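Box S1 | Example of a co-folding query
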Amino acid sequence: MLKGKKIVLGVSGGIAAYKAIALTSKLAQAGADVRVIMTENATEFVTPLTFQAISRNPVYTDTFDEKDPNVIAHIDLADWADFFIVAPATANLIGKIANGIATDMLTTTLLATQVPIYIAPAMNVHMYQHPAVIENMKKLESWGYRFIEPGDGYLACGYIGRGRLEEPEKMVELIDMETNRTIKWKNKKVLITAGPTREALDPVRYFTNYSSGKMGYALAQSAMEYGAEVYLISGPTNLAIPQNLHFYRITNAQEMYEQVMQLFHQVDIVIKTAAVADYRPVKIMDQKIKKKTGPFSVDMERTVDILGSLGQNKNRQFLVGFAAETENIKQYGKKKLDSKNLDAIVLNDVSRNDIGFDADHNEVIFMTKSGSEHAIPQASKKDIADQLIKLIDEEIGKG
Ligand code: PMT
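Box S1 (continued) | Returned holo structure for PMT
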């Protein structure tokens, strides 16, 4: 899918700059037309001539070295590209982009472009965890920049940890997948919630449920593959944070509610897969509750019904709920569909071990407000997610 794609590769000054050579080669082999921009610091690690030989294109290092008098180079490159990749992206470069600083050919061109930009950070593990770097990355992410997360391992500085530039093959695979997306939902923004919530009782105890987040993360992946811009709000899970979407980690139902409400008005579709606690302790104790003999009880209160609030507040959004049931599945599911003012609901039987909570498979019924019902037989959660996204798309299409 990269064949014929026009790619600007920005290389900044880190030891991982050598990997950008392999990246250029892989992109060129895939049929892409690659133009490389190097920062001055990058030229300390590798030479422009290497990139020129591999890309078969001139390499840009200086804003004022105008190769063609008919155009302004940085504007011309910004307009020419289908997308940008910055690999490696140093902490310094990320900081500059996040603050609109344009002091060289790379940052100037990045500021002038309107096409998708992939950033592949590479730096020392402590730099990667620095609040300034985290803030800058968050800011860029909220502007739609896509991050190719660094891997864990041995770093050139001698530390072992996160900060290694992703391997060139992986980067090409990822970018290829992105460009291969079905573009049906190109202009759609989809909000998905996943995982459990955790309601604290004291500093060592909490109430939760068995949700692993697998179903919600699979839906996020499928929605991305459909071309949507995805906002994933997740409770505590052990799953890797997916790339190329907006990710928000929350702990309890109230935090999920606040995050959902903050995003709700800018999205077109909401899929509420999360298993939200219905009750929480009335009081969270500051100190660990000491055990005593005899029974123990906790006063609980209702959490906010997030889906119910969305149903009351929705205007243009297509609202999909989930129903985790153990009996009378259709009957209880239909009740939730109506009472929460949903457009559709996905019913699953959570009394079974082979599907539902924490399993790799699921089996669901997709029920709509318009009265249709579609049973999806047991399949992997990714397959189920693919089919659900397709069904939601068809339902939206019916108007
Ligand atoms: O995460 P996995 O291990 O992959 O498991 C997937 C799953 C079983 C969690 C998933 O398929 C599922 O069924 N999700 C819904 C779980 C649930 O909370 O169901 P419910 O019937 O209790 O709630 C109905 C709907 O209201 C849900 O969309 C839920 O997100 C929402 N809700 C519930 C309570 C609350 N306070 N606010 C809500 O928004």
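The radius of gyration is 24 Å. The domain at 189-398 is CATH 3.40.50.10300 (Rossmann fold).
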